[in-house]
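During the no-cost extension, the postdoctoral fellow (Dr. R.K.) reprocessed legacy sequence entries with the updated structure-token encoder. One reprocessed record is reproduced below for audit purposes.
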Amino acid sequence: MSGREWSSPEAGQVLKQYSVPDWPLLATYLISEASAQKSSRWCNYISALPRQPYSLLYWTRAELDRYLEASQIRQRAIERVTDVIGTYNDLRLRIFSKYPDIFPEEVFNMETFRWSFGILFSRLVRLPSMDGKVALVPWADMLNHSCEVETFLDYDKSSQGVVFTTDRAYQPGEQVFISYGKKSNGELLLSYGFVPKEGTNPSDLVELPLSLKKSDRCYKEKLEALKKHGLSASQCYPIQITGWPLELMAYAYLAVSHPSMSKQFDEASGSMDLDVTSPKQLNRRVFLKQLAVDLCTSERRILFRAEYILRRRLRDMRSGELRALRIFDGLRNIFK
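Re-encoded structure tokens follow.
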């Protein structure tokens, strides 16, 4: 993005001089064009963008702690907020403070960066045919997501434009959907500010953290076995309603193995219904609580089923060394 594409060419030239990466560059460009108002060629598009995207960037820390206490997405949301703050502070110290006439603080500040990054997280698309380049695609980014379609935006070299082809026929007046990607409900809430209805997202999953117990008599031996394969005492595995990775079972086997099976550790470790389309009509607190309830309900559904099956598997493992060894013989084949 060269300086001549900016309503303020000086701003583009300065950021290019400092080799600012794509994401903060686009965020700054969006703020700059929004401040230019009618003189920006993107005026109509920017005026149609939400002033407060419903991503988790806009949840307060108290709201994240209270409503998403039991979800792994809470920590990811905190990390994302921290990253945005860190990015802004870096730009402010390295660039904005040195060029206050080009980047005045009343325009380029933490609030405007929260807004611009909220727009990028919820609307930026990757274009596969352009080696995964990221871009904002005016108007096309207003298409809603459906878990039932696989249509996505991409750059078409012949027409030199961004296009998409629907994977089914639509009737006149019917809403056309695209896919935002195979994302879990938590990831959709994190970036886009909505949660699909329970049971409608085949890509939904919960990240389950597992850890070795330090009270385990073979803790050191098990830890060494994990480290040999690039793993640590704590691992995180995705669990879906349809099952979980075999690596999780191998890790679980190692975690519950009896001390008498310590010689096998090296082999065991291996390589192991709220309408959110009109959020302005909703009370903010009710809206956020409902989103949190929807997310936690879907994650609890996955975990309850996984817990039931996993408990049965682990009970079988603990019932005797011979039975555990038979299970191990099957599991270790995945690491060959």
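The beta strands are 125-127, 133-135, 144-145, 154-156, 161-163, 177-178, 206-211, 234-239. Confidence is low (pLDDT under 50) at residues 268-277. The remaining legacy entries will be reprocessed before the final report is submitted.
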